[in-house]
Design a protein that fits this description.
By secondary structure, this protein is of the alpha/beta class. It is about 45% helix and about 15% strand. The chain has helices spanning about 15-25, 30-35, 65-85, 105-115, 130-140, 150-160, 165-175; strands spanning about 5-10, 35-40, 90-95, 115-125, 180-185. Strand 2, helix 3 and strand 3 (about 90-95) form a beta-alpha-beta unit. The protein is globular, with a radius of gyration of 17 Å.
Protein backbone atom coordinates (compact mmCIF):
# COMPACT_ATOMS: atom_id res chain seq x y z
CA UNK A 1 0.00 0.00 0.00
CA UNK A 2 1.32 3.43 -0.94
CA UNK A 3 1.44 5.84 1.93
CA UNK A 4 -1.02 8.71 1.99
CA UNK A 5 -0.10 12.30 2.82
CA UNK A 6 -0.96 13.98 6.10
CA UNK A 7 -0.34 17.71 6.40
CA UNK A 8 -0.35 19.04 9.94
CA UNK A 9 -0.67 22.82 10.00
CA UNK A 10 0.62 24.03 13.36
CA UNK A 11 -0.18 27.72 12.99
CA UNK A 12 1.22 29.76 14.54
CA UNK A 13 -1.37 32.05 16.03
CA UNK A 14 -1.93 35.43 14.40
CA UNK A 15 -0.95 34.15 10.93
CA UNK A 16 -4.38 33.69 9.37
CA UNK A 17 -4.92 30.18 10.73
CA UNK A 18 -8.64 30.64 11.39
CA UNK A 19 -9.14 32.13 7.93
CA UNK A 20 -7.33 29.16 6.38
CA UNK A 21 -9.43 26.70 8.39
CA UNK A 22 -12.65 28.47 7.35
CA UNK A 23 -11.62 28.54 3.69
CA UNK A 24 -10.75 24.85 3.64
CA UNK A 25 -13.91 23.87 5.53
CA UNK A 26 -16.15 25.88 3.19
CA UNK A 27 -14.45 24.54 0.05
CA UNK A 28 -14.14 20.94 1.17
CA UNK A 29 -16.26 19.44 -1.63
CA UNK A 30 -14.16 21.11 -4.32
CA UNK A 31 -10.92 20.13 -2.61
CA UNK A 32 -12.13 16.50 -2.40
CA UNK A 33 -13.13 16.28 -6.04
CA UNK A 34 -10.45 18.34 -7.76
CA UNK A 35 -7.44 17.73 -5.53
CA UNK A 36 -8.11 14.39 -3.83
CA UNK A 37 -7.71 16.29 -0.55
CA UNK A 38 -9.62 16.21 2.73
CA UNK A 39 -9.66 18.50 5.74
CA UNK A 40 -10.59 16.19 8.54
CA UNK A 41 -13.40 17.69 10.56
CA UNK A 42 -14.04 16.02 13.86
CA UNK A 43 -17.48 14.71 14.74
CA UNK A 44 -17.06 15.70 18.37
CA UNK A 45 -20.01 17.67 19.67
CA UNK A 46 -17.63 19.83 21.73
CA UNK A 47 -15.69 21.06 18.70
CA UNK A 48 -17.34 22.75 15.76
CA UNK A 49 -15.62 22.21 12.41
CA UNK A 50 -12.02 22.72 13.50
CA UNK A 51 -9.39 20.09 14.00
CA UNK A 52 -8.26 21.49 17.36
CA UNK A 53 -9.41 18.21 18.88
CA UNK A 54 -6.14 16.60 17.81
CA UNK A 55 -4.16 18.78 20.23
CA UNK A 56 -3.71 17.60 23.77
CA UNK A 57 -2.85 21.11 24.91
CA UNK A 58 -5.57 23.21 23.35
CA UNK A 59 -7.60 23.49 26.56
CA UNK A 60 -6.49 25.27 29.69
CA UNK A 61 -4.07 23.23 31.77
CA UNK A 62 -6.62 22.60 34.51
CA UNK A 63 -8.89 20.88 31.96
CA UNK A 64 -6.13 18.58 30.70
CA UNK A 65 -7.17 15.58 32.70
CA UNK A 66 -7.06 11.90 31.88
CA UNK A 67 -10.53 12.03 30.31
CA UNK A 68 -9.47 14.82 27.94
CA UNK A 69 -6.30 12.96 26.90
CA UNK A 70 -8.44 9.86 26.30
CA UNK A 71 -10.76 11.91 24.06
CA UNK A 72 -7.85 13.34 22.07
CA UNK A 73 -6.39 9.87 21.57
CA UNK A 74 -9.81 8.59 20.50
CA UNK A 75 -10.01 11.41 17.93
CA UNK A 76 -6.52 10.66 16.63
CA UNK A 77 -7.33 6.96 16.23
CA UNK A 78 -10.61 7.87 14.51
CA UNK A 79 -8.62 10.09 12.12
CA UNK A 80 -6.15 7.28 11.38
CA UNK A 81 -8.98 4.83 10.66
CA UNK A 82 -10.67 7.36 8.36
CA UNK A 83 -7.42 7.97 6.48
CA UNK A 84 -6.82 4.22 6.10
CA UNK A 85 -10.30 3.58 4.72
CA UNK A 86 -10.48 6.68 2.49
CA UNK A 87 -9.94 6.65 -1.24
CA UNK A 88 -8.46 10.14 -0.98
CA UNK A 89 -4.69 10.60 -0.84
CA UNK A 90 -4.10 13.81 1.10
CA UNK A 91 -5.37 14.91 4.48
CA UNK A 92 -5.06 18.14 6.43
CA UNK A 93 -5.49 19.04 10.08
CA UNK A 94 -4.87 22.49 11.45
CA UNK A 95 -4.58 24.17 14.82
CA UNK A 96 -2.64 27.16 16.05
CA UNK A 97 -2.48 25.30 19.37
CA UNK A 98 -0.20 22.52 18.06
CA UNK A 99 3.00 24.45 18.94
CA UNK A 100 2.13 23.91 22.62
CA UNK A 101 2.41 20.15 22.25
CA UNK A 102 5.13 18.52 24.31
CA UNK A 103 7.76 16.26 22.74
CA UNK A 104 6.03 13.03 23.86
CA UNK A 105 2.70 14.24 22.40
CA UNK A 106 4.36 15.08 19.08
CA UNK A 107 6.10 11.69 19.09
CA UNK A 108 2.75 10.02 19.79
CA UNK A 109 1.28 11.65 16.65
CA UNK A 110 4.31 10.51 14.62
CA UNK A 111 4.15 6.95 15.96
CA UNK A 112 0.44 6.72 15.28
CA UNK A 113 0.50 7.93 11.66
CA UNK A 114 3.97 7.29 10.23
CA UNK A 115 3.15 3.73 9.18
CA UNK A 116 0.36 4.89 6.84
CA UNK A 117 1.26 8.52 6.03
CA UNK A 118 4.04 10.69 4.78
CA UNK A 119 3.74 13.57 7.22
CA UNK A 120 4.60 17.20 6.54
CA UNK A 121 4.39 19.94 9.14
CA UNK A 122 3.27 23.34 7.85
CA UNK A 123 4.01 26.42 9.93
CA UNK A 124 3.59 30.12 9.31
CA UNK A 125 5.76 32.51 11.30
CA UNK A 126 5.21 36.22 11.76
CA UNK A 127 7.77 38.82 12.78
CA UNK A 128 7.63 38.86 16.57
CA UNK A 129 6.88 42.58 16.89
CA UNK A 130 3.95 42.23 14.47
CA UNK A 131 2.78 39.11 16.33
CA UNK A 132 2.83 40.98 19.66
CA UNK A 133 0.88 43.91 18.25
CA UNK A 134 -1.75 41.67 16.64
CA UNK A 135 -2.12 39.55 19.78
CA UNK A 136 -2.39 42.63 22.00
CA UNK A 137 -5.07 44.11 19.70
CA UNK A 138 -7.07 40.91 19.94
CA UNK A 139 -6.80 40.82 23.73
CA UNK A 140 -8.01 44.42 23.98
CA UNK A 141 -10.92 43.79 21.58
CA UNK A 142 -12.10 40.48 23.00
CA UNK A 143 -11.01 40.13 26.61
CA UNK A 144 -9.94 43.29 28.37
CA UNK A 145 -10.07 46.78 26.93
CA UNK A 146 -7.87 48.00 29.80
CA UNK A 147 -5.09 45.42 29.35
CA UNK A 148 -1.65 46.99 29.36
CA UNK A 149 0.66 46.04 26.52
CA UNK A 150 3.57 45.24 28.86
CA UNK A 151 1.39 42.69 30.67
CA UNK A 152 0.66 40.95 27.35
CA UNK A 153 4.33 40.94 26.39
CA UNK A 154 5.29 39.52 29.80
CA UNK A 155 2.74 36.71 29.37
CA UNK A 156 4.14 35.85 25.93
CA UNK A 157 7.73 35.85 27.18
CA UNK A 158 6.74 33.77 30.24
CA UNK A 159 5.34 31.05 27.96
CA UNK A 160 8.93 30.29 27.02
CA UNK A 161 8.42 29.46 23.37
CA UNK A 162 5.75 31.57 21.66
CA UNK A 163 8.23 34.25 20.55
CA UNK A 164 11.22 31.89 20.23
CA UNK A 165 10.46 30.13 16.95
CA UNK A 166 13.57 27.94 17.00
CA UNK A 167 12.67 26.63 20.44
CA UNK A 168 9.03 26.12 19.42
CA UNK A 169 9.96 24.14 16.28
CA UNK A 170 12.75 22.10 17.86
CA UNK A 171 10.59 19.18 19.11
CA UNK A 172 8.77 19.03 15.74
CA UNK A 173 12.11 18.90 13.91
CA UNK A 174 13.45 16.26 16.31
CA UNK A 175 10.44 14.02 15.67
CA UNK A 176 9.63 14.63 11.98
CA UNK A 177 13.00 15.82 10.66
CA UNK A 178 13.89 19.27 9.37
CA UNK A 179 13.17 18.17 5.80
CA UNK A 180 9.50 17.63 6.71
CA UNK A 181 8.94 21.08 8.26
CA UNK A 182 7.56 23.54 5.71
CA UNK A 183 8.23 27.02 7.12
CA UNK A 184 6.42 29.98 5.61
CA UNK A 185 6.70 33.67 6.42
CA UNK A 186 3.34 35.32 7.11
CA UNK A 187 3.04 38.20 4.68
CA UNK A 188 2.66 41.64 6.22
Amino acid sequence: MDKKNLYIHIGTGKTGTTSMQNYVAHNLETLNKKHNFHYYITNSSEISYTSHSYCKNFRNAERQNAEWIKTVNHNLIELKNNIKSSELNSFFISSEFFPGEKYNEIKHIYDLFSDICNIKIIVYLRRQDEFIWSWYSQVVKTINIYQEMQGCINALVKSGYILDYEKMLEPWENVFGTENILVNVFPP
